[in-house]
Amino acid sequence: MIFNMWYNMSRVNSRHRKIQLRDMDFLNCVVYIVYIERNVHYNMKAYVILHGQTDFDAEGRIIGNSDPSLNDTGREQAKNAAEELKSKGIDMILSSPQLRTMETAEIIADTLGFDKSKITKGLKLYERAFGDLEGKLISEVDMFALSSWFGNAATPNGETVKDTANRVIAYMNNMVKIFRTKTMLLIVPEHVYKVLFWFFNGLPELGKEHEVKTDNCLIHEFDTENIPPEIKDYAPAADLPADDSGGGADDASRLLSQSEIDALIADLMNSK
């Protein structure tokens, strides 16, 4: 079957006419990554945690894209989470780009003996922007209205729930295709965690989108084997705005170019 798929592809794309039968390992990567189909069997295991506590958390403030560091409690929480993760066989650590998530990731990496320079910074996993409300007390804001999946509420200069979901779900769809056999630890802020919960379990039902809750450094285990069909088809990457951060190797919230796919395949082959 693999050969037949290769033969049909090679007739369409002259680039692949040069592939020889001896390159079957490379060919398998192409088949399963470049020409991945909807019924692909995903095997990636993911452990997802919310970053350690910050003073904003302790005071009940909206963090959003503010960038507070961990407090002493948060650093201790990260160390405790790392102890629990020692037996999980983590292959890679993926963190949101904010200071609080990167600090958590580095503390965990130290405890696990993981090279901190190899922590992947997910450019599209930054927290939902709450604009003018960032830094305000949650008790002063109608967060229920702002957090409704089915509404379209956004704060001034902020994002809606679906704005956040568009970039996070598209990003993750690419990540599970590329790193489908890895055991990944994701360290993220609160509203990105909620979207990841929906990614692994399906989009929320009306009135139930507020039921997704977690706590700082609480570990959640997810299996990507049965990602719901509506998630695989969600938020076409080509429809998303360009990454204004300058891009990067991990900017998977858009369709990957052929050169980027070639580079990823080469990395996979070299790591075998």
Key features?
272 residues; disordered N terminus; globular; five-stranded mixed β-sheet; Rossmann fold; alpha/beta
Uncertain segments are: 1-23, 235-258
**Total domain modules:** 1
Overall strand count: 5
User: What is the CATH topology assignment?
Assistant: Rossmann fold
Helicity range of the residues? Answer: 25-40%
Strand neighbour order, sheet with most strands: 3-2-4-1-5
Beta-strand share of residues: 5-15%
In short:
This protein has helices at residues 2-12, 24-34, 55-59, 72-85, 99-112, 143-146, 161-178, 190-201, 229-232, 258-270; strands at residues 45-50, 92-95, 120-121, 183-188, 219-223.
What does this entry look like structurally?
The protein has 272 residues and is α/β, with parallel strands linked by helices. The chain has a single domain (45-129, 165-270), classed as Phosphoglycerate mutase-like (Rossmann fold, 3-Layer(aba) Sandwich), CATH 3.40.50. 39% of the residues lie in helices and 8% in strands. The protein is built from ten helices and five strands; from the N terminus they run ααβααβαβααβαβαα. Strands 3-2-4-1-5 form a five-stranded mixed beta sheet. α2 (24-34) packs across α10 (258-270), α4 crosses α5 and α7 packs across α8. It is globular and about 50 Å long. The two termini are 23 Å apart. The model is unreliable at 1-23 and 235-258 (pLDDT under 50).
